[in-house]
Each structure stands twice: as C-alpha cells, then as structure tokens.
C-alpha cells in the first residue's frame, strides 16, 4: 500500500438486490445491458454518446462528437441546439402539451400547477422581457430567487435567447451576490421581494439593493412579488415582473446556439479563496442531465418526481430543471423548510401528490431520524417506488432508516455521487440492475471511467483508499472556471497526471463497489494511519443516542493528530458516562487506532447552506484557534458562537 493511501475501517456486509417487480419495468434492467453500455462508453465514447445525442433535438447535427483531450474538450462541435427548446417546445407537439410540468407548493401552502404549454408561454414571454431590457445572446443574467416557478421560467428564458444564467441560492448574503455579479459581469438580476423560510420572510430584494452598491455592471432589476412585503423600487432600474409580463408577446423563437455555448455559470465555494465560477455548456450538459435522469431515476411518463434540492445548487439545475423537463416529466417543487409548519411536511407533500420518485440529501435524512419515526409513520408513503440520496456520503445507519421507514423495504435507493463540476451523476446504482450496499455509491454509470489511484496515477488494489479520479472526458463536464482557465487546469488536472480529480478520497471493495471516504482535505493522520473522518462519523452515528457527528483532527503531541468528535444527540444532554460509552463504541466498531481523544456534545453543527458540515471551522475550534477565511456560506452563524462559548 502506498504511503499516500487512506486506511479504510468501515465494514459493511449488507446487500440489497433490486426487487423483481422493479426490475421487470426498469429502463435499464439487466447486468448484461449495463455492462455492454459501459464497455461501449469506454471503448468508443464518440459512438456511445453520439447515438444517445440523437434523442435530443438539434437544429443542425454536429460534425464531431468529441474534440480534444482533458482538460480541454469540446462536445458536438458544429451542432446547433437550444436547451429551452429541448425542455419545452419538443413536448408541445405531443400529448404532453397539457401534462403537468411543475407542481409547485409554497411554504404557506399555496399551490400552482404549470403544464408544459403554460411553462412554454411564460418562458417565451419572459425571454421577450429580457430582450426588451437589453439582454443579448452571450450576456450574463443573475437569478436570485426563492424556489418558485419563476426561477425555472427565468432560467429557461435565459437559455432560450442564449443568455448565460448565474443562479445564486436565496440564502446567500448581499456580499456574496455582489461578488458573483461582479465576477460574471451580470447585466440584469432577477429577484423577488422576499421568500418564505420557516414562516419568516427572507429579504431578497433588500439584499439585492445592498449588493448593487458594489456591483456596477447590473443595469436592470426584475422583481417577482412573492411575499407582498414592502420593498424599495428604484425608478428606471427596478421593475415588477408582472408589469413587464403584461404587455409582451408569447412568441419567441429559441435561438440556434452552438453546442458549446455557455448555458450557465454556477459558483461553488472552495474551502479557501474566492468562489469558483463553474461553466457548463449546452449540448453536452443537457445530454448528461437527460440521460442520467432516465437511467438513475428510471423516469416513466406517469412518474411524479420530487427532488428536494433548491435550484440554486447544481442538483436543482440538473434534477429539478433541465434533466426531468428534457424528459417531459412532472416535477414537484416545494419552496420552504422540511419542518414547517411541522416535521411532517415532506411526508405530507409525498402523500398529497402521490410522489413516486424522491431524491434528497443525507443531512435531511439525519434530521428526519432525529425528529422521530412518528412523523413519517403518520403518512401514506405507498406511492413511492424509488429513493435517492446526494451531497455527502450517506452513513449506513441513515441508509437503513431511509430504506425501512421511507421505502418500506420496497424501494431501491440510489446513492448518487457527483459534483457541481461533473454536471450530472457519475457513480450510482442503476435501480433495476445494481444490488446496493448501504453507504456505497456502487459503480460508474455508462460513459464514466473512474479509478482509485495514488498521486502518481497508479491504480490501487481492492479496499485501498486513495484518490477518486475520472480518466475519460464526459459530455457534461465543466469546461472552465469563468475568467480563470488557469485555475481550472490547476484545480482539477494537476494532482494526478492525465486525470480529472476534484478532491474526494475513496476505495473500491472486492466487488468493485466504490465507497466515498469524504474530501481528502478531511483525512486524519493518527499515529501514521491515514483515516477517513467520515468513517469515524459513521461509527458514531450507528450509536443509538447519536443523531449526527463531525470528526476532525487536532494537533497531538504523541499521535501527530488526535481525534475530536463533535456529537449531536437525538435527545437530551451529554454526560461523562455517555462520553465513555461512545469512545468504547468507536473502538469496538473500528479499532483502537480510531479511539476518540475528545467527545464534545453540541446542539448543532456548523453547516454550509447546502448542508455540508464545515469541518475546517471545527478544526479551528478543536485546535483552539481563531477561524480565518470565508464563513459566508455558513447556514447559521450562532452555531459557531455557541461552540466557542463552551470552550471558555
Ligand atoms: C461533493 C460535491 C452533486 C450534487 C451536490 C453536491 C460530495 C456528493 C456524494 C455521495 C459521497 C458525495 C463529494 C463531492 N458528494 N454526492 N453520493 N456520496 N459524497 O455538489 O457541492 O459540488 O459537492 O459532494 O465530496 O465531491 P457539490
């Protein structure tokens, strides 16, 4: 084993075969079919992706499927395409024209349903509004909205005229909006007066006003009236959405764009430095989003599909908007919090709309576990047939709960590994093919060639932890970081020669299943053993008293690094007895080398707005240091203050 490798300690032997009733109806339904597709994707990527691309609508067919090598690849060059046309117009010539595209529910309980025809009309009108405001093909438009249908409308309107959208999640601050406006040199921003979150108004327009003091490129502001709250409207700069929409035509041709035309920029915060503007282009991205939706979510004409992500994240871009709409699916969207007005809200929505495919994040699942089984138990969840997970490794305990409590041991679970940068799901079970193991994202999808390697790029053996890389280009990969191609090359292509590497550690087990071990930046080095923090966390969460755990290293005289565990309990306060019990529990689950040095009970953990634990901040606390660097992505600043108080 190379000295760079990460020692794996997680043992998971349970395995779940796809139920026969699922297999018989699945879009991909046999191991042979998967293997044959995967092999072709590896041996003949151009042939493989070229055939699939025929399922999209092209104004002009491409000349070349794939040009260049990583990092600089182009897909479907010479082809002319439009993402908005593919998500809308295509369906209007079929029976789908009156099918629900979006079933939306606001946090206060208001609802709207837009058919494909409705959505098409609104998108065309808003595209005409954008043109009237001076937006041209190639310009950038910022969207800073709650999760309301206008967000989907605005993104597809941008796509229709070839304006590149940059969506900023509604939880970000005025400063974050200003930075992103400036980096993209956005011309127009679309926002709302406010949005609803846990019964409170999120002050979006106020944040925009603040941001525009520092972002001079933005000339016009469009404001959706959502909450009805009082906002300041600056004459000749700010316009109400409804006023602008009242007198534009509902005819707007989709612009015939190059396949490599930039569809959107999405900023992703690295652990250090300024946010990276990940650029995705049109043809390849759309193909990736469409095919993976069909394969992984097994989408059928009559599915009611709900991905709980906000469109402000890549998950929402690919699996609330472009992927499912391109497939002509019915998408459920919910504006607000999972615990408003109570902890049963998600299950209420599933029961009410008879949701069949449900895609959410481990952080949400752990919150559900903490809130108690009686919440989901109150509702009829029998419409569900498939469950998904994304965002971080799902601990086996959380996986089992999801399988039992939500899926009634009947629904396959797809644990999907991917990134903002990959644009679409890369590793995941195929629900009608792949036996699942709790905690593993299993295998690469067709068209994806992954490997676990050391820093020189040598493949590691079974159960040796190393760096997860992608060896072959794929259509939905990022093309650059906006305005900084060098940083793009440096960040993703300099660690392992010839490969794409975006920071995760992983191992493959003896069956070739991939187990993500978290970000390599989070690896512990205890007495010379490189351990994955995520595995220690999994062990802790397997204890009946624990709801959530975050594990970090801190400087230790003897061991180099000691193990500090921040633990949130399902209920009650921690005690010394429980502390001892947890330490024993981890020793038993993993071994003496992983014995925690400190256990700290805390009511909450510092998380990004997308639910990822910010271990960097916890490392500072464990080491007794001040935190430096960006904390603007933190969901709740008071969590850090509380942790620091305990320290004193
Ligand atoms: C990072 C990417 C991709 C949509 C949401 C996050 C982690 C994501 C999994 C998974 C283990 C996962 C990785 C990855 N991650 N999905 N199924 N199992 N880890 O997008 O913000 O770009 O984050 O999330 O560490 O690199 P993102």
What does this structure look like?
The strands form eight sheets. An eight-stranded mixed beta sheet has the order 12-11-8-6-7-14-15-23, with helices on both faces. A seven-stranded mixed beta sheet has the order 5-4-17-16-18-19-20, sandwiched between helices. The protein is built from 20 helices and 30 strands. The chain has three domains: 6-82 and 263-515, ANL, N-terminal domain (Rossmann fold, 3-Layer(aba) Sandwich), CATH 3.40.50; 85-255, ANL, N-terminal domain (Rossmann fold), CATH 3.40.50.12780; 527-647, ANL, C-terminal domain (GMP Synthetase, Chain A, domain 3), CATH 3.30.300. A hairpin with a 3-residue loop joins strand 28 (546-556) and strand 29. The protein has 648 residues and is of the alpha/beta class. It is 31% helix and 22% strand. The relative contact order is 0.11. The mean pLDDT is 93. Residues 268, 314-315, 390-393, 415-420, 441, 502-504, 516, 519, 610 line the site of 5'-O-[(S)-butoxy(hydroxy)phosphoryl]adenosine (WT7).
């Amino acid at each position: 084993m190379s000295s760079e490798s990460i020692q794996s300690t997680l043992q998971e032997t349970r395995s779940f075969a796809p139920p026969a009733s699922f297999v018989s109806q699945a879009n991909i339904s046999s191991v042979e079919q998967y293997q044959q597709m995967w092999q072709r994707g590896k041996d003949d990527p151009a042939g493989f992706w070229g055939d699939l691309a025929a399922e999209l609508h092209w104004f002009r067919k491409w000349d070349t499927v794939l040009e260049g090598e990583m990092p600089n690849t182009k897909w479907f060059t010479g082809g002319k395409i439009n993402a908005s046309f593919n998500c809308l117009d295509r369906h209007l010539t079929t029976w789908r024209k009156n099918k629900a595209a979006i079933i939306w529910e606001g946090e206060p309980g208001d609802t709207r349903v837009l058919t494909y025809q409705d959505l098409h009309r609104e998108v065309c009108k808003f595209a005409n509004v954008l043109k009237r405001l001076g937006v041209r093909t190639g310009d950038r438009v910022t969207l800073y909205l709650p999760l309301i249908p206008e967000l989907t409308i605005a993104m597809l309107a941008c796509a229709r005229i070839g304006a590149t959208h940059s969506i900023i999640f509604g939880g970000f601050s005025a400063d974050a909006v200003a930075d992103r406006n400036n980096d993209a040199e956005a011309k127009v921003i679309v926002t709302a007066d406010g949005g609803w979150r846990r019964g409170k108004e999120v002050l979006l327009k106020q944040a925009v006003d603040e941001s525009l003091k520092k972002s001079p490129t933005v000339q016009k502001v469009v404001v959706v009236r959502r909450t009805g709250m009082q906002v300041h409207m600056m004459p000749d700069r700010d316009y109400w959405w409804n006023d602008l929409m009242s007198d534009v035509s509902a005819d707007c041709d989709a612009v015939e764009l190059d396949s490599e035309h930039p569809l959107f920029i999405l900023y992703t915060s690295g652990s250090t430095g300024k946010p990276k503007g990940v650029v995705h282009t049109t043809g390849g991205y759309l193909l990736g989003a469409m095919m993976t939706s069909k394969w992984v979510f097994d989408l059928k004409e009559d599915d009611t599909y709900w991905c709980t992500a906000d469109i402000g994240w890549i998950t929402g871009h690919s699996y609330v908007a472009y992927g499912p709409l391109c497939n002509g699916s019915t998408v459920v969207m919910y504006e607000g919090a999972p615990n408003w007005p109570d902890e049963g809200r998600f299950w209420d929505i599933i029961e009410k709309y008879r949701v069949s495919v449900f895609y959410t994040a481990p952080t949400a699942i752990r919150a559900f576990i903490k809130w108690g089984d009686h919440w989901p138990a109150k509702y009829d969840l029998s419409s569900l047939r498939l469950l998904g997970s994304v965002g971080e490794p799902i601990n086996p305990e959380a996986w089992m709960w999801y399988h039992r409590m939500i899926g009634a041991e009947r629904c396959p679970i797809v644990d999907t590994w991917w990134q903002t940068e990959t644009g679409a799901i890369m590793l995941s079970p195929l629900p009608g093919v792949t036996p699942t193991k709790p905690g593993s994202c299993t295998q690469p999808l067709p068209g994806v060639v992954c490997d676990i390697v050391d820093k020189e790029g040598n493949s590691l053996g079974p159960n040796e932890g190393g760096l997860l890389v992608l060896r072959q280009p794929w259509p939905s990969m990022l093309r650059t970081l906006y305005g900084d191609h060098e940083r793009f090359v440096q960040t993703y292509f300099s660690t392992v020669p010839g490969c794409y590497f975006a920071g995760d550690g992983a191992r493959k087990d003896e069956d070739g299943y991939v187990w993500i071990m978290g970000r390599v930046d989070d690896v512990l080095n205890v007495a010379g053993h490189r351990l994955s923090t995520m595995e220690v966390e999994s062990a802790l969460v397997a204890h009946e008293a624990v709801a959530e755990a975050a594990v970090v290293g801190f400087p230790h005289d003897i061991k180099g690094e000691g193990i500090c565990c921040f633990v949130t309990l399902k209920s009650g306060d921690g005690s010394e007895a429980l502390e001892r019990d947890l330490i024993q529990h981890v020793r038993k689950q993993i071994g003496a080398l992983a014995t925690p040095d400190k256990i700290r009970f805390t009511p909450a953990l510092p998380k990004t707005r997308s639910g990822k634990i910010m271990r960097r901040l916890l490392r500072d606390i464990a080491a007794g240091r001040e935190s430096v660097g960006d904390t603007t992505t933190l969901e709740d600043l008071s969590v850090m203050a509380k942790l620091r108080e305990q320290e004193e």
